[in-house]
Amino acid sequence: MTSTWSVAADAAISVLQMAGVVLGGPLLVGLMRTVRCRLEGRVGPPVRQPLLDLRKLARRQRTRPEHASWIFGLAPLLLVATTLVVAAVAPLLATGPALGWSADLFAVVYLLLLGSVALALGGLDTGTAFGGMGASRALTIGAVAEPALLVSILALSVPAHSSNLPAIISGSLAHPLWLATPERLLALAAFVIVIVAECGRLPVDNPGTHLELTMIHEAMVLEYSGSDLALIKLGESMRLGVLVALFAVLFVPWGIATSPGPEHLAVSLVSLVAKVAVLGVGLAAFEVGVAKLRLFRVPELMAGAFVLAVLAVLSALVLA
Amino acid sequence: MTGAIVSPAGLPAGAEPAGSCRWAAVVEPDALVPAAAALVSGGMRLALVSGHDDPVGPRVTYLFTSGPPDHRVELHVPLEPGHPCVPTLAGLSFQGSRFEREMADLFGFEPLDHPQKRRLVLHQHWPDGWYPMRRDAGPMPALVADAGQYPFVPVEGTGVYEIPVGPVHAGLIEPGHFRFWVVGETILRMKARLWFVHKGIEKLFEHREPADGLGLAEKISGDSAVGHGLAYCQAVEDASGIEVPADAQVLRAALLELERLYNHVADVGALCNDVGFGLANAWALSLRELLLRLNADVTGHRLLRGGVVLGGAAVHRLPTAAELTEVSERFEEIAELARTSAFVMERFTGTATLSEANAADLGVVGPAGRASGLAFDARVSHPHWDSLPTFEPARHTGGDVLARYLVRTDEIRSSLGLLAGLAGLGPSVCPAAGAGAGGAASRSGVGIVEGWRGAIVHRIELDSAGQLGRVKVVDPSFLNWPAVPVSLANTIVPDFPLANKSFNLSYAGNDL
To answer: What pTM value is reported for the model?
Structure first.
């Protein structure tokens, strides 16, 4: 199918995906905040507030710790850059964007995690107690989330005999029954838990807290300010947007453009926005109902995700 | 308040009745420790220690209390003017050792053989030898620019690291510095440094007319306007022999419960918020707002200022039964929401446990003490009016965050019950009553009130012109702060904010 796409169309789709993630990520965060506020009986800020915050932060003066090295400044750039690369190559709107062959599930997911590692290094680089504490906690959780992620990806790639994302999605569209198999559902559960952990959402981390001693992600980025902080906020919301969009196309692929043409692309765009919005609302509603886990319970949650992923692989191999 | 005829056990020879339920004796410094030991072994607690720089020479007053029956015993110890020093009571009472350090900083009275001879109230940059509470203190001296580091007890070992937090925090929190020594995430030791907002409130009271002091007392800790206001008024009424009419006593009791209600509701929400359960907090904040508006209807002030006046109470109306029912229903919804959340209960259970033995040794008061199994509640031990409805104080034995949470929820229910009972006892309106005709004036007075954080104690002395001489204030936070680090044994760093919130101590009330 990919052969029928012209190079120009491929490039246009990639640009559209990147622009969509840059704008859509902060809007998704805003939507989730609004849902949370409404469910708690509050009015809350407008959905576009995260975008306004980014503009405000970008205009503000930037300060950097006296003894921080170049790593501190590089980390936010790396976070945004890796997420942009994923947004460019991942089949979010069409099964064949430019460089679709490179959109390997392993490559995509680990590009996203590269940003986390960069932030952890940036946190350590400040030399403050909070930067180090946040980095230590984030990497501890990352270390236990990683195996679950790896194995759930494996489970997804078994039916298609490929970890190439366009191939998995095309396969799912051709064989809708794949989506209802136990391995797909188990992998889905594991994948959701890992997304929640990696994006620092409840019950793993509380993005809304002001209590510095409880923070994981926020402690790591406590020293960032001005345009650096704007990049981090942008990178985080883009990553949440990309992960939710990836989840949407992997598990509910219908609507994605499989053949060229603006009309297919338009349908794909509308369906993707709708799917991401529904997932965002669902995630926010879930967050309202839970509280934050004790830090040492988080590895247990991740172990649970890992078990689900292993079961997914086993059932994929047994049932195949 | 009718004084009990039975005198307390351990009363020293020569003690004379001095005021409401109160006896006083003059004791020489050498005889202090045995006299104090007799009172403590008779079951009394050291509630207040106050230094005095009288024209005739320095003096220390120790106030011991117990109840029921309500007993208050004062020991007055005159000191040698040239070199004022007192034997320490550190071996008898932990809070006594802290009062002595406070007195050493502010009056320069040296506690002999004190185990912790270092500053408590004044930070290092205050010059040595300047004692702000003395008569001849004069204007504030220049601060020492390079006072050196605070002598933290070093904690060493493989993998031990320090986390300094504050005094400026994220969010709207009063200033305090916390220093953690941590291995991994487990807290080995925590040191809280307070007194960043020491304002010299006790000095500010001096030379005011008693009626002028009330506004200041209400602002000692903004969330305890009724607690401190009432303790102050009781002390002044005790000193001037003012009888408070029964109707006003009913209204005072109601105001105290209204204050407990809005603060406990806010705490219940804040505890849920600290474990990331924002839903319960949003509901609790909306209920708190309802209560604050009710407060504004009751006294004209959202934080109930102006409700307690000298000799009486000024209340526009009491909450109606319908209003109390609405508060109760909305509170039960919140309590049910938290109770049925496994996440919340799991975070509360077993976190930051304060054993009953530790709580008793440290002299912990209020809900924090009752969560560790202690029975003390000043509403029962020192009722400000004999005919108040009786109730059973909330008491739990877990000593953890859950127990402190449950004591609060129980007290909200008992406060609502008390308010409903009080509404039928007296008038719902009481114009500000003037100071009534007095009985025998003793020139010194003590007020003890169970504020929402615990027992608030004020002791005042009037000078010959009838103005305020020495006013000593004890906020429960002063007694409870040392319990926070003790409760942190085996607690992990990310649980500290929750543990701290479960005590919810005042910085302003502690720093004075």
So the answer is: 0.90
